[in-house]
């Protein structure tokens, strides 16, 4: 479970995240929605402990992101905005690197790699260098890498960016699979389509603040709009 | 510890697969000594040329002065006798390089004891050899002239020394050996450059490059300390620097026998022990270089920017080397306080076979290592700040 409490982040004069609070539960997919520049990525980066909050905090599982960042990092898997994988390593080597950084022993890493290659259907390209991979293949490698230590919490920053329909569908299946495994999944997006297909809960951020926190149906009701996109626009107020 | 080794291994494998890194890291180390040998051989052979090769000279009007021609033949010369109507034109047309023109009236004037004027035609704008050949020819003719003059004085019953109140003896300290040594003085300069170039691309790729490719952010979400992360990256940079230095030494030892040093009676013995000494003296500099390069590259936002910064950084440690070389600074305690300068001086002494003080080596190692540790701390501190991502 991820619990965010009055989280604030300033960059100089810019208040990127203002007093954000919400919860993401285990076994559910929570969407972090918002227009570009609303503070979604910053919130995820704070949760991933690569940025430090100006004030407020968040708990990932039992761990406070401010006081126990190393423990938080062991329990999260992060898929960053762009895959950020190493071009000159093979897919397996990319995954193995993170497995070792997570402190897993050799045998465990290898068995995990085999599981993930099966789960993400990477058999064909897992021993090739990442250099010439398609966007879909890259996302799979990055996702496998994020999942190598079997994290309880998965943070995905706009994972479907640049994916075609087939790859998006495949990714949706994977996310649902992760959800069935009981993980807490938090992902940011601005595509309504995938939100409605995938999410249980929705947190909408506008100008660094939470403007809606609830279920999909709740969103429709609140905005009194049947169409999600219209509801979203109404809630964000733009 | 294991995280540190994991990072180190990954960075080494990753960069060994990068042709650009390999080229930039090791090309100077491998090709530097070849350039060195070429330059040294060139200087030596052009300096030694005068005593070895016969002087090629064309004589016009040789039949007017058979004795002079005979005298020149006894010198180390190859003489071509030709009738040339316009000597200057022949030279300009490139038909001849050096022409001695003897006028028809030579014989008569000689018999009468009058001054004879001979033309030596050459092209002074032609670099090197032409100028030297001209000097050689002139001195030969002068010697002949002096001999004849002496004989004439003796015939008249005069002591020849009357005509030579002053004799100049030239003492040229720029012997071929000294000239060769001047080039050898470039060795430490090269060596420092090789160390910095060895780590150049790795320092960029592991810092600014990683950020530009977006792989730094997920890496920072791994449960390892920033110290382990940074030190893994720095050590990988050190590995490449050290490999580059090793290649340079091997390549240098292999290349030295090709320099015709024995022709100037000089021997440059660089054995395994010298190489080990040079390497050990350089170790603190390698660590310092890795730290310095990484710290500077960490400030850059992109690969390109880092490249620009580091090119300037590489000039900084090599600049004092050139300066002290120009100013002829002797090895002293104070030099030992400066990284790169101290190593360059110590290594230069080792190569030249001079005694090296243990205190100097110790001081150099201590100061440079201290600065290397400071650089490492600075790099770790930089990576602990969240702005490393932005």
What would your notes on this structure say?
The complex is a heterodimer of chains A (238) and B (390). Chain A is of the alpha/beta class and 238 residues long. Chain A has one domain (2-236): P-loop containing nucleotide triphosphate hydrolases (Rossmann fold). Helix content of chain A is 39%, strand content 26%. Chain B has 14 helices and 4 strands. Chain B has helices spanning 2-16, 19-52, 66-74, 87-92, 106-112, 129-155, 176-184, 186-212, 216-220, 226-255, 272-299, 303-327, 341-351, 358-384, and strands at 55-60, 77-82, 99-101, 119-121. In chain B, strand 1, helix 3 and strand 2 form a beta-alpha-beta unit. The model of chain B has no long low-confidence stretch (mean pLDDT 84).
Q: Could you outline the blueprint of secondary structure elements for this entry?
A:
The complex is a heterodimer of chains A (238) and B (390).
Chain A: E1 2-11, E2 14-24, E3 29-33, H1 40-47, E4 55-60, E5 63-64, H2 69-75, E6 76-79, H3 91-101, H4 106-119, H5 135-147, E7 153-157, H6 165-180, E8 184-189, H7 192-198, E9 201-206, E10 209-215, H8 216-223, H9 228-236
Chain B: H1 2-16, H2 19-52, E1 55-60, H3 66-74, E2 77-82, H4 87-92, E3 99-101, H5 106-112, E4 119-121, H6 129-155, H7 176-184, H8 186-212, H9 216-220, H10 226-255, H11 272-299, H12 303-327, H13 341-351, H14 358-384
Parallel strand pairs in B: 1-2, 1-3
Antiparallel strand pairs in B: 3-4
Quick rundown:
The complex is a heterodimer of chains A (238) and B (390). Chain A has 238 residues and is α/β, with parallel strands linked by helices.
Number of beta strands of chain B: 4
Helix proportion range of chain A:
25-40%
Strands of chain A, count: 10
Distance between the termini of chain B: 28 Å
Average residue-wise pLDDT of chain B = 84
CATH-level-4 superfamily name of chain A: P-loop containing nucleotide triphosphate hydrolases
Q: Which regions of chain B have little confidence, pLDDT < 50, spanning 5+ residues? A: none
Q: Which structural class is indicated by helix and strand composition of chain A?
A: alpha/beta
Mean pLDDT of chain A: 90
Which CATH class of chain A applies here? Alpha Beta
Report the portion of residues of chain B in β strands.
Answer: under 5%
Radius of gyration of chain A: 18 Å
Largest interface summary: A-B, 35 and 26 residues
The helix fraction of chain B, in percent, is 55-70%
Low-confidence blocks of residues of chain A? none
The largest β sheet of chain B comes out as: 4 strands, mixed
* Inertia-based shape of chain B: elongated
Spatial arrangement of strands, main beta sheet of chain A: 6-7-8-3-9-10
């Amino acid at each position: 479970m991820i619990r965010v409490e009055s989280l604030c982040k300033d960059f100089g004069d810019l208040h990127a995240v203002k007093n954000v609070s919400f919860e993401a539960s285990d076994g559910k997919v929570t969407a972090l929605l918002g227009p570009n520049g609303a503070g979604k990525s910053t919130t995820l980066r704070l949760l991933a402990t690569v940025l430090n909050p100006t004030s407020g905090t968040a708990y990932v599982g039992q761990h406070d992101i401010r006081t126990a960042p190393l423990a938080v990092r062991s329990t999260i898997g992060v898929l960053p905005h762009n895959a950020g994988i190493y071009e000159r390593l093979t897919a397996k080597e990319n995954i193995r690197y993170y497995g070792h950084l997570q402190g897993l022993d050799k045998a465990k890493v290898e068995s995990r790699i085999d599981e993930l290659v099966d789960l993400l259907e990477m058999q064909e390209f897992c021993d090739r260098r990442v250099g010439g991979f398609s966007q879909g293949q890259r996302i799979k490698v990055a996702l496998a890498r994020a999942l190598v230590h079997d994290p309880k919490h998965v943070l995905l920053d706009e994972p479907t960016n640049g994916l075609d329909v087939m790859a998006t569908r495949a990714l949706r299946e994977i996310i649902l699979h992760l959800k069935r495994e009981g993980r807490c999944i938090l992902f940011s997006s601005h595509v309504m389509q995938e939100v409605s297909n995938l999410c249980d809960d929705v947190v909408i951020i506008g100008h660094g603040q939470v403007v809606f926190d609830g279920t999909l149906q709740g969103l429709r009701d609140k905005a009194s709009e049947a169409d999600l996109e219209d509801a979203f626009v109404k809630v964000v107020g733009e | 510890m294991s995280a540190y080794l994991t990072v180190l291994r990954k960075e080494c494998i990753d960069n060994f697969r990068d042709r650009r890194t390999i080229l930039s890291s090791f090309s100077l180390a491998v090709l530097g000594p070849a350039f060195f040998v070429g330059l040294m051989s060139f200087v030596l052979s052009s300096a030694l040329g005068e005593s070895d090769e016969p002087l090629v000279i064309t004589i016009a009007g040789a039949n007017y002065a058979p004795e002079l021609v005979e005298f020149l033949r006894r010198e180390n010369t190859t003489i071509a006798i030709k009738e040339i109507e316009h000597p200057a034109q022949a030279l300009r047309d490139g038909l001849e390089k050096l022409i001695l023109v003897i006028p028809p009236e030579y014989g008569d004037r000689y018999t009468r004891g009058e001054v004879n004027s001979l033309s030596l035609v050459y092209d002074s704008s032609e670099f090197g050899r032409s100028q030297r050949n001209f000097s050689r020819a002139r001195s030969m003719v002068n010697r002949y002239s002096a001999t004849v003059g002496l004989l004439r004085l003796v015939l008249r019953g005069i002591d020849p020394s009357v005509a030579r109140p002053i004799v100049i003896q030239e003492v040229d300290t720029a012997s071929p050996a000294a000239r060769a040594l001047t080039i050898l003085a470039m060795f430490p300069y090269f060596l420092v450059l090789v160390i910095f170039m060895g780590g150049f691309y790795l320092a960029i790729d592991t810092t600014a490059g990683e950020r530009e490719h977006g792989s730094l952010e997920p890496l920072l979400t791994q449960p390892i300390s920033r110290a382990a992360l940074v030190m893994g990256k720095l050590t990988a940079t050190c590995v490449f620097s050290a490999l580059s230095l090793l290649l340079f030494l091997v390549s240098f030892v292999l290349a030295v026998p090709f320099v015709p040093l024995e022709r100037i009676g000089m021997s440059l013995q660089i054995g395994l022990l010298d190489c080990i000494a040079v390497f050990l003296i350089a170790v603190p500099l390698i660590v310092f270089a890795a730290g310095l390069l990484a710290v500077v590259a960490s400030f850059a936002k992109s690969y390109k920017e880092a490249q620009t910064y580091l090119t300037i950084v590489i000039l900084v440690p090599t600049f004092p080397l050139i300066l002290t070389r120009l100013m002829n600074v002797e090895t002293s305690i104070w030099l030992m306080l400066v990284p790169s300068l101290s190593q360059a001086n110590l290594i230069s002494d080792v190569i030249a076979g001079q005694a090296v003080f243990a205190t100097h080596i110790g001081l150099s190692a201590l100061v440079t290592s201290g600065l290397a540790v400071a650089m490492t701390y600075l790099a770790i501190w930089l990576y602990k700040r969240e702005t490393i991502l932005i």
